[in-house]
Design a protein that fits this description.
The complex is a heterodimer. By secondary structure, chain A is an alpha/beta fold. In chain A, 27% of the residues lie in helices and 30% in strands. In chain B, α5 links the parallel β12 and β13. In chain B, α3 crosses α4. The chains are: A alpha/beta, B alpha/beta. Chains A and B meet through α3, α4, β7, β8 and β9 of A and α3, α4, β5, β7 and β8 of B.
């Protein structure tokens, strides 16, 4: 295939313990480390492996959001992507707008495969890939843990609630990846230097002829209820007694 | 008046308990008139089961050979076709619903409300973000249809005292042939379903092998419980992926959860924080699991688990 398109979202790093601001105006993002959404990193790794096997010509990484998402695109280029596109918006758009933007890029770039993370770990929406597939009128294979290409089709193993489902889809298609698909590579210093010279196109949202859609509005943020630490029991007999006392046995 | 369409999840033979939970969520919307759509190859038994769910006024049975296996690309155009008559379309936040509903939402030109945990109004809902580290109140775009997925751990199934009418429907929608079901490798088990069980016993990395995990199954059987596992235990190959409890596995809310040899990574705790009572058995007294456990027992699981199983059987 000629081309794989991979989406990279800039999110709060997965190691950061996210907290709601005390005034309830949002979550604390000042000064916190930002990274590529971990699922998107797995998507990129898979695309790179396909290209390295000789099954794809180039890997294009795309991000949508404010200008500082360039950092994540540069990391993607350092991992091995050939070029990058940043669609610049004032704030990160809602999933449907993201899907419309990706559709426009799909029409321009004509990829054979779009690989995305199964969800972003900030808003946990898990919508964009499915929506892109719907608008594009193409197959979707979500929550994928294995991807095998066979010419004009792909065989995808999906992690579903009841086990592992195998789906065959015609290409082009949208695949969203789960954690067990692969382990992304580490970026080496020379690759970071090399990535600085790779092309990164910046396109304003208006340049695509798309406007922001009707996102659900957030009315309030609150911290979740915390569980209280309970009691330690000395032995099995005390544990069974405690469970009986609570009417659990 | 809210006209709500719930998309039934099933395996061709029985409804998944997720359907009754979606109906429970729908019932929380003021003035709800709830219909359930059953898409299947032959959905007679399924439709009859759905008709019994309390609060449902009508079941729409859509039989089609193309619906023998639930493919989002095939189901979405049919759901979108039916959806015209409704203000809300709800599905479960299981892998079935998470796959299907955003595709439906896009066809209806709306964003989806993912993981509804509480209904505050016809267009206003609470949902978790950042793996449950924050809860937001969101308002869906006014004057548009609401498409949502229902967070399973937040709702209890409605009971089966209903007597809804069943209507057979033919949905005229162009169905694509570009996506084909090949196979499903499902774990065969006589134990309760992990997602809906009232008791769950989970094992972690400390079990050290697939063979040792038998101990967890035996303890679960003594309790009539479902069996789960931490991500570490799944990644180590002790048990299959569908047993994973946590942020990227199943988010569950059993009355009793027993965590054995699980340290309690934040990703795991996200999956169990709505459990009624959490019991933890771990050799490390400083393990984070004890911070959320109602009852904690420090010690060697290889000694304590058989001892607990024996105590429960007598």
């Amino acid at each position: 295939m000629d081309r794989i398109l991979v989406g990279l979202k800039r999110v709060v790093d997965y190691n950061v313990r996210v907290r709601v601001r005390s005034d309830g105006s949002g979550v604390e993002t000042d000064g916190v480390k930002m990274s590529i959404n971990p699922f998107d990193e797995i998507a990129l790794e898979e695309a790179l492996r396909i290209r390295e096997r000789g099954d794809a010509g180039e890997v294009v990484v795309v991000s949508i959001g404010p200008g500082d998402a360039q950092q994540q695109l540069r990391t993607g280029l350092a991992m091995g992507a050939d070029r990058a596109i940043l669609v610049e918006t004032a704030a990160a758009p809602d999933p449907l707008t993201c899907a419309r933007i990706l559709l426009e890029l799909v029409n321009r770039e004509k990829p054979d495969l779009v690989i995305l993370g199964k969800q972003a770990i900030d808003n946990d929406n898990s919508q964009t890939g499915q929506m892109l597939a719907a608008l594009w009128g193409r197959p979707q294979a979500t929550f994928a843990s294995k991807l095998v290409l066979n010419g004009a089709t792909a065989t995808v193993t999906r992690e579903v609630d009841s086990g592992l489902e195998i789906l065959e889809v015609d290409l082009p298609a949208v695949v969203t990846v789960d954690l067990r698909m692969n382990e992304p590579r580490y970026v080496k210093l020379p690759d970071i230097m090399k990535a600085k010279k790779k092309p990164l196109d910046q396109i304003p949202l208006s340049g695509l002829g798309i406007s922001m859609g009707d996102a659900p509005t957030v009315k309030a943020y609150e911290a979740p209820q915390q569980r209280q630490k309970g009691v330690m029991v000395p032995d099995v007999a005390a544990l069974v007694a405690a469970m009986k006392d609570k009417g659990l046995l | 008046m809210a006209r709500i369409l719930v998309i039934a999840e099933h395996d061709g033979k029985r409804l998944n308990a997720s359907t009754a939970k979606c109906v429970a969520c729908a019932s929380g919307i003021e003035g709800a008139d709830i219909h359930v759509a059953v898409f299947a190859e032959t959905g007679e038994t399924l439709a009859a089961e759905a008709a019994g769910l309390a609060g449902v006024s009508k079941v729409i049975q859509v039989d089609n050979p193309a619906n023998a296996y639930p493919l989002a690309a095939v189901l979405a155009p049919q759901v979108a076709q039916l959806a015209g008559a409704y203000t809300h379309v709800l599905g479960p936040s299981t892998t079935f619903g998470r796959d299907l509903m955003p595709r439906v939402a896009a066809l209806l030109d709306v964003n989806q409300i993912t993981d509804i945990m509480q209904v505050l109004g016809s267009h206003t809902f609470k949902r978790p973000i950042y793996a449950g580290n924050a809860i937001v109140t969101v308002e869906a775009a006014a004057g548009k249809q609401v498409v949502g997925t229902v967070r399973m751990a937040s709702y209890r199934s409605v009971d089966s005292t209903g007597k809804a009418a069943i209507e057979r429907a033919v949905v005229e929608a162009e169905l694509p042939g570009h996506s084909r079901f090949v196979s499903l490798q499902a774990g065969k088990s006589d134990r309760p379903d992990l997602q809906t069980a009232s008791r769950v016993v989970s094992g972690g990395r400390a079990l050290a092998s697939a063979e040792n995990f038998a101990m967890i199954f035996k303890l679960a059987d003594a309790l009539g419980a479902a069996v789960g596992a931490s991500r570490a235990a799944v990644d180590a190959g002790f048990v299959p992926n569908e047993m994973q409890v946590g942020q990227t596995g199943k988010i569950i809310a059993p009355e009793l959860y027993i965590a054995v040899g699980i340290s309690g990574a934040i990703q795991h705790l996200t999956g169990i924080k709505d459990a009624g009572t959490i019991v933890a058995i771990n050799k490390d007294a400083d393990a984070p699991i004890f911070e959320v456990a109602d009852f904690g027992l420090v010690g060697d699981l290889f000694k304590l688990v058989p001892e607990l199983e024996k105590a429960l059987r007598t």
